[in-house]
From TrEMBL:
Keywords, sorted A to Z: Cell membrane, Membrane, Transmembrane, Transmembrane helix
Biological source species: Chelatococcus asaccharovorans
Record-given protein name: Amino acid/amide ABC transporter membrane protein 2 (HAAT family)
PANTHER family for the chain: ABC TRANSPORTER ATP-BINDING PROTEIN, HIGH-AFFINITY BRANCHED-CHAIN AMINO ACID TRANSPORT SYSTEM PERMEASE
Keyword Nucleotidyltransferase tagged: no
Localization terms from the record: Cell membrane
Stored CDD domains: TM_PBP1_LivM_like
Amino acid sequence: MTRDLRWPAFVLLAATAFALPFIGDSYIVQLATRMLIFGMAALGIDFFLAYVGQLSLGHTIFLASGAYLTALLTMAGLESALLVWPIVLLGVALLALAAGMLALRTGGLYFIMITLAFTQMLFFFLQSQRGLGGDEGFSVPQRNTLPLLDLSDPRNLYLLVLVLLLGVIGLIAWIRATPFGAAIEACRDNAQRLSAMGLDPYGYRLSGFVFSAVIVGLAGILYTNNTLYLTPALSGWYLSGELLMMVILGGSGSLLGPVLGAALFVLLQEQLSHITPHWMAGLGALLVARVMLMKDGFWNVLARRLGGDDSHS
């Protein structure tokens, strides 16, 4: 019998992640923080893709909305994360509810095109706002504050991002185990059967859309606090493509796949950009190799080698 090594591997990985800010320099901590933030965003996108069963090219509107709302509230004098972050997440949820009520009336290619249109609308709107720096963007004067944690220290911010990411992973795992999660997955597998049972597939899809948007919005909040600089590119369709690449690299439908994919993407982006301005070509080659050689993504292949069911990892 093959021993299941997934949990020991996860514990070792988590212990290493928590130890990193104490053993790594500021560059490593900053890079790792970016990995975790984009991992959270990719995880939110994958929830909608893998469990609801629809592809969205518009989730960067929630990343950008979370980031910009955080910046604007902070610059307006609201510094406390305990006040700013709930307001921002509520705003993102309401935006997702409005967008989802419109877009989810369609499906397939039409849904993809509508979400892409949302992304482009926000991109050009932000680009036209000279008060926000237009295409050049603007700086955020400071990070949000927490009573017992100094977020001006990059190590503390990293640890907060790590804890929040683990919380999101745990929340998704819990939802998957509930009847609500089963109903959301049923929308993907057999919406007609769900309707025959007296349940509303549209309502469950909309709930999944809003939930995934809030996760991406939280990543936007953390992005602002990490970079302290925002540009309209954060809402661009090409960032949607990059986030999907992260999901594909790591493996869709798993809890850790999108996070691993984001880590690989950010690391390769950082290294290849120092070698060539055409670093996307290298990432494209890696994506082709992943599709050809690893049908299920890096994490799903690794999970099977560790002796477990990758669909629950």
